[in-house]
Design a protein that fits this description.
The protein is an all-alpha fold and about 150 residues long. It contains 6 helices and 2 strands; from the N terminus they run αααααββα.
């Protein structure tokens, strides 16, 4: 699983660079033909492993439930986040991966509940959830790249 965590951290660095190097107004703009923005995609990527790892294992989230509820599957951008929320998400990009890795290494994800994802990928273990999460984050990185292209043309 070491490689999986390494890939996640590399992707998170890419997302962090988008967060730091994209003009604020572009982070929150939703281009025509899209239903979310760069910011939402990044925040969504941060909260999804909370659901896939902790909730499916019957454990408490390691971040605020309010953030999970605001950016989980089925949500859409709703106004601009506060500076404090932006700082939290920025920090959580890295700290949550390390936290999940430590909890995984300490065997905390014992009571994993099977789950069928939207793309019909069945998850029956924490390892499945971590592997799926790499795929999921790649989808959202692709969405961010598409949004950036659309914003550049606008």
């Amino acid at each position: 699983m070491e490689k999986t965590f390494d890939i996640l951290l590399k992707n998170r660095k890419i997302l962090y660079n988008f967060l730091r190097n994209t003009p604020k107004e572009d982070l929150f703009r939703i281009p025509e033909g899209f239903n979310n923005n760069i910011w939402w995609n990044i925040a969504h990527v941060v909260v999804t492993p909370q659901l896939l790892m902790y909730k499916l294992s019957g454990l408490d989230f390691t971040i605020e439930e309010e953030l999970v509820n605001k950016y989980k599957k089925g949500t859409f951008p709703n106004g601009e986040p506060s500076e404090m929320e932006m700082e939290k998400i920025s920090a959580y990009l890295f700290s949550t991966v390390k936290h999940i890795q430590l909890d995984y290494e300490h065997g905390k994800f014992q009571n994993f509940q099977e789950y069928m994802t939207t793309p019909k990928i069945g998850l029956s273990s924490p390892e499945d959830a971590l592997s799926f999460n790499v795929f999921h984050e790649g989808l959202h990185l692709g969405a961010i790249l598409a949004i950036k292209r659309a914003l550049a043309k606008a």
